[in-house]
Amino acid sequence: MSEPFATLKNIGDNIRRVMRGQEEAIRWLLACLAAGGHVLLEDAPGTGKTTLAKALARSLGAKFQRIQFTADLLPSDIVGVSVYDQEQRKFRFHQGPVFTNILLADEINRASPRTQSALLEAMAEGQVSVEGKTITLASPFMVIATQNPVEFQGTYPLPEAQMDRFMMRFCPGYVPVEQEVEILSDQETVHPLEKIEAVASVEELLAVREAVRAVRISSELKRHITDLVRETRTAASVQLGASPRASLSLMHVSRALALLEGSSFVTPDHIRECAVPVVAHRLSLDPQARFSGLTSEAVVEEILSKTAAPA
User: How confident is the model at residue 1 (pLDDT cuts 50, 70, 90)?
Assistant: First the structure.
């Protein structure tokens, strides 16, 4: 068993002590973590989005910050602000919560688009620009954002540029009844989050990401990824297809899934497994298609059914 594979297994097992019946969500979250991306968890309130993010953060010996997004949140509440120091007679910059390893952006769609945009540079480039200066963020840096469905009151849809920064979006969903009973038993006296401790360090996570970059992917599979993404740009009812960033994300997540299975190479199944959570949220459908009930997930599923995978 390789060390990076063992590191991911330990993190996953630790999260499972808290999250019941969420095997797919845990697998995809670990893949996104290993691939070096950001993840958007979207679902109804109470489905375990915040708990999943906290369980991951506590499983790592890394710095963790949480921001509760609200309508009155300002960009300076995320990035930081300069405060005048009377003793030094100069302004001193006080870093905001974005200066961390794992940032939980809870209910991100409750803040205004202006505030949401404060994360764009940080998510894309791992840095922030403040008062004419560029400050590099810690490595690793990962945003785990949660979002309630946009039809709920008091929410703002995330702009296309923001959505494209998320490597994956998926919905944890409701668990089967047996696991829901286990959740009641787990939290009868104390929340299981309070019992888990870190099982991996920042250095081990960086080693995992190096291992992901070493996973082999053939030129045929790279072409398959490109074909899948390019099909979204000409698909009927799609106003805006996926960008080359989607192709890169699909490649990185596929390699991470291979590492999660202890494999040294990517297969077509890895690509097709993560195509929907990696690509679908980047598509913009025309109004008529949305009104008729078509979803971006259904568009990607149709493309997958029509595009043959390499033998």
Answer: very low
